[in-house]
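From: lab user (bench 3)
To: helpdesk
Subject: output format question, protein + adenosine monophosphate

Hello, I'm new to running complex predictions and I'm not sure whether the block I got back is the full result or only part of it. Here's what I submitted:
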Amino acid sequence: MTFEELGLSPELLRALDRAEYRKPTPIQAQAIPPGLRGRDVMGTAQTGTGKTAAFTLPLLQRLDASAGDQPVLRALVLTPTRELAAQIHESVTSYGAELDLWHAVVFGGVGIQPQIKELRRGVDALIATPGRLLDLVERGAVSLDRIEFFVLDEADRMLDMGFLPDVRRVITKLPRKRQTFFFSATMPPEIRRLAKLLLRDPAEVAVAPVSVTADGVADQRVLFVDKANKRRLALEVLADASVERALLFSRTKHGANRIVRELERGGVVAAAIHGNKSQGARVRALDAFRAGELRVLVATDLAARGIDVDGVTHIINYDLPNVPETYVHRVGRTGRAGATGTAISFCDREERAYLADIERLIGRELERVDNHGFPASEAPPAKPAAPAPRTRRRRRSGAGRSRRGGRGGRHSASRQGG
Ligand code: AMP
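Helpdesk reply: Thanks, we reran it on our side. This is the complete output you should expect:
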């Protein structure tokens, strides 16, 4: 299956090509065709599956097909955290680079005035967290009367974070005639009820849910370290001969390349697999890893999906994932089929909140390893943080609004911050 076969426009295909997406992920293959036909979509999928593109691509294509001269707010994406909002906005900016659409992102915790100013100039699509959106609606800075596309992202996390009342208030302000995309990693009864209320005859799409136990992985350790020392710590860990076959995770493609260079400088042969590598390079690296010729494979989460390699003795989380379910996905790559595996997570100061999220999700504490060569300069908390409502780390960016192209003779704009 190719993106072309899904029915995407040439502008979007070129943007995907630039982003080096070679083929649709399963959730994209399932959600894009009905989305393009105007159907409601109910997706069971979590971050890391490519779900953002699964709703963003049909949304952009349909908006573009019926855009007038002036931007009118016709698409709304509601997401629970500022971090997700910023990520979705980045995706919209990247996929929509050749389209003549304005879009903005708004979330709380930053000044509202710059956001009001941006919105006054008009946007076609808005990505928002619920509280800030309601605030803006109440101030008359934004009207939801002409919304045609509504996306509710991470509905179960909205529930976890206590945002459902706000979400319901937003929904009452939307026109009844609209297309709705509904995404949730899990479908507890309350979320199912909400979906039923929102969706009309939806196409139901799903990718396998993650088990949150990670029970097969007996040995799950965390090493507190300063960011600057992660490289040395990785070399120390890999110097242990019991690490026969290690899958090392990096949050970003760029990071994966850097880690490989750093390891090689330290005398450890490694290869990276991620979306920017050619198919050939990925296959070669995987084959060598499978055959036992390559001891260390560095991967991003998406590249590692679907990789099934027996005998991975160690999972090393060089970066902790900001989505706790991703941790479970990662460590599930070891300890398969009765073999025991070890998961070693590096945790720098900024990642401590992620660690707390992970421990809450899996319902157990990772074993603290203190006797390593590069202990963190600032002592970590002795115990994991007490259970509290899930919160995400804050990103220091405010309203962002961007557009490329110039329908109506306007200049393109792209801004972040505020
Ligand atoms: P998401 O689940 O939407 O947060 O996406 C996870 C990551 O996968 C993001 O970094 C996307 O840029 C990337 N991604 C999404 N779709 C594809 C694809 N078809 N091929 C390669 N990378 C993708």
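A quick orientation on your result: The first strand starts at residue 41 and ends at 44. Let us know if anything else is unclear.
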